[in-house]
Design a protein that fits this description.
alpha+beta; seven-stranded mixed sheet; six-stranded mixed sheet; 9 helices; disordered N terminus; binds zinc ion
């Protein structure tokens, strides 16, 4: 299934700010790895319709184009156009990469002022360059946490396996010009909040309009079941931090009624969180 031919969803946040969901294709991830420490007995029934013969789940590459009176912000860039054919097949990557998906949705990549990424794993930072090596968003400042750039290029062998380091080295200088440290309001209404957990320098992105607040929790909020703070993926490098920060941020989201966009949910990525015993529930809108 690919659902990336146009803007699938957009919302008026009030005060001249809008956000549009742009799906930059899909890929497939091992189901067990996505559920991390959770026993299969508990998650099996959630995915019976979508698990494939290789025990993988379909994962959308959800990006957001946020228009504010102060500028255009793209959140996430997906996998992009530079993956070798062999890796494309291995990852089950299909659909339009970010530039083509944006253009199909009527947005000009050259008009983007800021590209904000939750973290620098291949499926979030892969779309910064075109296939010919040119910048996909020539005018944009690239925003990730400085600590994420540092860890992404570390020589720990698990880190080497989770990041596409040769690609990141090509954009390192561009990225380090725009890197941030800590919680920062990038333009009025658009903030990043460091979370750690999934990766050392992982961050959430918050967009506050006059009427609505929209939150993108990156890979701390991949799929509806991520609403349980203890359901963390095997890809989370610092799972205890994930559990703690999810509990805290999801609590704020539930109390204040934030709109949530999930990073990899293919079918119902937009919703709100509500408290449910010692966890939260994701209710699609
Ligand atoms: Zn991801």
């Amino acid at each position: 299934m690919t659902t990336n031919d146009a803007v699938d969803w957009s919302v008026d946040l009030g005060g001249g700010s809008r956000a549009a969901l742009i799906q930059a294709g899909t890929f497939r991830s091992d189901a067990g790895a996505l559920f991390g420490p959770v026993p299969r007995l508990l998650w099996d029934r959630l995915v019976t319709d979508e698990i494939d013969n290789d025990n993988r789940l379909l994962q959308a590459l959800n990006c957001l184009l946020v228009e504010t009176p102060a500028g255009r912000v793209l959140i996430e860039t997906g996998i992009g156009e530079r993956l070798p054919e062999k890796v494309v097949a291995m990852r089950g990557y299909e659909g339009k990469p970010i530039v083509a998906a944006m253009e199909a949705a009527g947005f000009e990549p050259g008009s983007v002022d800021l590209v904000v990424m939750s973290h620098l794993h291949f499926d979030h930072a892969g779309g910064l360059l075109r296939s010919d090596g040119s910048k996909a968003f020539p005018r944009a400042r690239i925003v990730a946490q400085r600590g994420e750039w540092e860890i992404a290029l570390d020589d720990n062998s698990r880190i080497v396996a989770s990041y596409d380091q040769p690609e990141l080295r090509l954009v390192r200088e561009w990225g380090s010009d725009g890197a941030v440290e800590g919680e920062v309001e990038l333009v009025p209404g658009v903030s990043v909040i460091p979370t750690g957990g999934h990766s050392k320098g992982h961050q959430a992105i918050l967009v506050r309009g006059a009427d609505e607040t929209l939150a993108f929790f990156g890979d701390l909020g991949m799929r509806p079941w991520s609403a349980n703070p203890r359901w963390v993926t095997a890809f989370d490098d610092f799972p205890l931090d994930s559990v703690e920060v999810k509990g805290e941020l999801f609590g704020r989201a539930a109390d204040e009624g934030w709109l949530i966009v999930l990073s990899h949910e293919p079918v119902m990525p937009i919703g709100r969180l509500s408290s449910d015993r010692d966890r939260f529930r994701f209710d699609p809108v």
